[in-house]
Design the sequence.
């Protein structure tokens, strides 16, 4: 057996020692022991070893052995460190919550016309109706993928991230798109006419853009299915994907996502859609 000393880097966690494991044991076994000893979720615990060459803490991978994490096989004494990451929330929950925002704002501004301070009900244009439909279909697809397609390499993230991540979808693709796109297009002029402008393209052009959007969305789903099948539920190993889209560009899932929002922006032509499209490009680019 190996003597393992775990020093705490957080006030909320006690230091710990174990003589029941070896370098061939899984790191996850020690994390379970720490979790039970501190009566704390294992997802809050980050176990690390000190790299003496540069003084940095190197996180250990739970589903690998100590030896696989770079600790010499057969070591009789191991010094490790543990840190409390704070309250955590599952990635799946965060995705479900952040994608739900548009389902509140878009129906609200589409159906509650009194929000635009109009005395007489108005009829939405073809572009507005199509924009409403494809936005909700887009986020319905996102929710479906979160539940049945995506596999996450980490179980949780810091609780605060749910507020940070939701801002992008609740405000930018929720309120931002809904409020400025569904207003009565014939009521405003001048600056307000620009703020609430929505394109009035020929019917054939509207449906051509919807067809482009549908192609992009289905292609995005296809690439997500390919990525999902590459990874086992508990594996963090990355494999180079091949097949549909991946033979054309490096990250086709981001490419098709951007293409779908480009089709939306061309359909409505409102400044808010172009801002969201631009930010989506930046967000996708940061994920490369």
Sequence:
């Amino acid at each position: 057996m190996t003597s393992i000393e775990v020093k705490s880097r957080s006030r909320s966690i006690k230091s710990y020692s174990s003589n029941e494991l070896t370098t061939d044991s899984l790191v996850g076994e020690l994390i379970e022991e720490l979790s039970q000893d501190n009566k704390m979720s294992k997802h809050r615990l980050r176990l690390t070893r000190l790299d003496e060459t540069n003084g940095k803490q190197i996180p250990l991978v739970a589903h690998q052995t100590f030896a696989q994490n770079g600790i010499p096989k057969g070591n009789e004494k191991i010094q490790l460190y543990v840190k409390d990451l704070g309250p955590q929330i599952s990635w799946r929950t965060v995705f479900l919550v952040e994608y739900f925002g548009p389902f509140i704002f878009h129906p609200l501004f589409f159906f509650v016309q009194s929000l635009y301070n109009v005395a007489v009900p108005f009829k939405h244009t073809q572009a507005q109706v199509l924009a409403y439909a494809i936005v909700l279909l887009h986020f319905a697809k996102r929710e479906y993928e979160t539940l049945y397609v995506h596999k996450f390499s980490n179980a949780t993230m810091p609780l605060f991230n749910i507020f940070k991540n939701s801002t992008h979808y609740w405000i930018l693709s929720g309120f931002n798109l809904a409020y400025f796109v569904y207003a009565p297009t014939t009521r405003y002029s001048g600056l307000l006419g620009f703020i609430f402008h929505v394109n009035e393209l020929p019917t054939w052009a509207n449906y051509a853009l919807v067809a482009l959007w549908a192609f992009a969305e289905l292609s995005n789903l296809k690439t997500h299915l390919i990525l999902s099948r590459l990874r086992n539920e508990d594996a963090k190993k990355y494999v180079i994907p091949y097949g549909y889209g991946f033979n054309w560009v490096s990250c086709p899932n981001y490419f098709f996502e951007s293409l779908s929002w480009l089709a939306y922006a061309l359909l409505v032509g409102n400044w808010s859609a172009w801002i969201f499209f631009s930010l989506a490009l930046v967000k996708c680019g940061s994920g490369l």
